[in-house]
Amino acid sequence: MSTLAPEILSLFENLNKRQLEIEEKITRLKNVLNLITQQELSAEIRGSIKELGKLIDAVKLIAEEQEKEKDKNAILQRLQRNEELHKQLQASHRRAILTSKQNIEREAKIEREMLLGRGDSGRNLNVFEMRNRNLTSEDTLIHSAKDVTESLRRTTELMQQEIERSAYSAKILDESSKTLKTTFSEYRGFASVVRGSKQLITKLEQIDWTDRLLIIFGLLVFSLVVLYILKKRVWDTGFGWISWFASWVI
């Protein structure tokens, strides 16, 4: 089985977190007894489901961009479960709206019966007031829970962004460390080459001086040989002729 990259796993974690949040909102929607609260919560769920679909499409696009076929198949195979849950959430949202609508209609019917005074009017009025107070408290609790959930969602997103930023920084530092190690190794190789070149230049200089001395010595020997030949052929011969001519004159 192909191991997914950390950023891909992070996307799937975000998908799962969004789906859990939508399921929680749908559960709350089923128990809503106020029309305004139902409309607000239903619109919020609808927007969350739409964002979830966009996120699923983004993961599909990332899968198509994978170079290896096994990585692409691994992402699409795991994404298939999220797509099924996305469809289930859409159906659950519709069912929750119907359930909430039925509860609201039933609640309105009970309130009408109370207002019309069926049965004990005093008792019905007290029950009606108590139900209104309970509904108000319920709405307050729902809004408070929604605010807390929204704050937790924002905090989670900030933490996720910080984690991704830290992971990216760690990746950059790791790549920089590898680059520095590679550069250091190259510099060490250059230092070895420079030392070898220096030693070679020193040997070449020594050989150059040796060649110069040999050339000078050869020139000196050649000059001595030439002088010796000139002495034998010119000086000694000329001096012999002069001695012979002098002896003949005398």
Descriptors for this entry?
250 residues; mainly alpha; rod-shaped; transmembrane; coiled coil; transmembrane helix
Short note summarizing the structure:
By secondary structure, the chain is mainly alpha-helical.
Any chance you could write out the topology, listing elements then pairs?
Layout: H1 6-30, H2 35-64, H3 69-116, H4 121-249
Helix pairs in contact: 1-2, 1-3, 2-3, 3-4
Membrane topology: Single-pass type IV membrane protein
Coiled coil: 12-82
Transmembrane segments: 213-230
Question: Helix-strand pattern, N to C?
Answer: HHHH
Give the class from helix and strand content and strand pairing. Answer: mainly alpha
Number of domains: 1
The general outline is rod-shaped
What level of helicity do the residues show? over 70%
Mean pLDDT: 77
Distance between the termini: 127 Å
Percent of sequence in beta strands: under 5%
Family: Belongs to the SEC20 family.
GO biological process, one term: retrograde vesicle-mediated transport, Golgi to endoplasmic reticulum
Membrane topology: Single-pass type IV membrane protein
InterPro entries: Sec20, Sec20_C
Task: Describe it.
With 250 residues, the chain is mainly α. The chain has one domain. The chain contains 4 helices and no strands. Helix 1 (6-30) runs antiparallel to helix 2 (35-64), helix 1 (6-30) runs parallel beside helix 3 and helix 2 runs antiparallel to helix 3. The termini are far apart. Residues 12-82 form a coiled coil. One of its GO terms (molecular function) is SNAP receptor activity. The chain crosses the membrane at residues 213-230. Keywords: Coiled coil, Endoplasmic reticulum, ER-Golgi transport, Membrane, Transmembrane, Transmembrane helix, Transport.
